[in-house]
Design a protein that fits this description.
Blueprint: H1 3-17, H2 19-29, H3 36-49, H4 60-81, H5 89-120, H6 123-132, H7 140-147, H8 151-176
Helix pairs in contact: 2-3, 2-4, 2-5, 3-4, 4-5, 5-8
C-alpha cells in the first residue's frame, strides 16, 4: 500500500467517523435551520478538496469543525444578502466557542450511555431494535411477517422501547455529570 493510498484510507475513515460531530457542531451554530444537511455537504466537499492538507495524527474533529464554522459564516452571508434574518456575528462566535468545548465530549457521553442502556435490554427487545434499525433497513412489513406481530403492535413496542432508551440515556448522562 502506498503512502498516498494509506493517507486516503485514513482520511476517508476519519471523515466518515466524524459526520455526527460535524452535524452536531453545525446545528449548534444554526439551531433550527433547515440548511444543516446542505451546510454539512458543503463542509464535506471542502474537506475532501483539502484532504492533502490534513496531517494524519492531528485533530481531525477540530479541523472539520473549523471548516464548518467558516462554511456557516458563508451561509450566513448568503442569508443576509437574501434578506433573511440571521444571528449577529458575536452570537455566532459565542455559540461556536461554547460548542467546540462540549460537542465531542457530549457525543461520546451519549454513545456510552446508549451502549449501557442497550446492554440492559432484554434479549427479545434488543433483537427487535436490531431488526428494525439494522443496516438492511428494517422494513416494518418484513419485520411484521418475521415476528408474527401486526405492524401496529410493532410500532407501539418500538415507541415504548425508544422512550425507555431516551429515559435511560438521560439518567445516565445526569449520573455521569454527577447530578444524581
Amino acid at each position: 500500500m502506498t503512502n498516498s493510498s494509506e493517507h486516503m484510507q485514513q482520511f476517508v475513515s476519519l471523515l466518515t467517523n466524524h459526520q455526527e460531530l460535524i452535524r452536531s457542531y453545525i446545528i449548534s451554530l444554526v439551531p433550527g435551520s433547515p440548511d444543516v444537511l446542505d451546510i454539512r455537504q458543503e463542509v464535506n466537499i471542502l474537506l475532501w478538496e483539502k484532504k492533502d492538507d490534513f496531517e494524519v495524527g492531528s485533530n481531525f474533529g477540530a479541523w472539520a469543525c473549523t471548516t464548518a464554522y467558516y462554511k456557516v459564516l458563508d451561509h450566513r452571508k448568503k442569508q443576509k444578502r437574501d434578506g433573511i434574518l440571521v444571528f449577529s456575528d458575536k452570537l455566532t462566535e459565542a455559540l461556536a466557542g461554547e460548542s467546540e468545548s462540549r460537542t465531542p465530549d457530549l457525543i461520546e457521553s451519549k454513545r456510552r450511555a446508549l451502549d449501557y442502556c442497550l446492554a440492559k435490554l432484554k434479549g427479545r427487545e434488543r433483537k427487535l431494535l436490531d431488526a428494525r434499525y439494522s443496516s438492511k433497513g428494517g422494513d416494518m412489513e418484513l419485520l411484521s411477517s418475521d415476528t408474527g406481530r401486526s405492524r401496529a403492535s410493532l410500532r407501539i413496542s418500538l415507541h415504548r422501547l425508544r422512550g425507555s432508551l431516551r429515559q435511560c440515556i438521560s439518567q445516565q448522562l445526569t449520573t455521569e455529570r454527577g447530578e444524581a
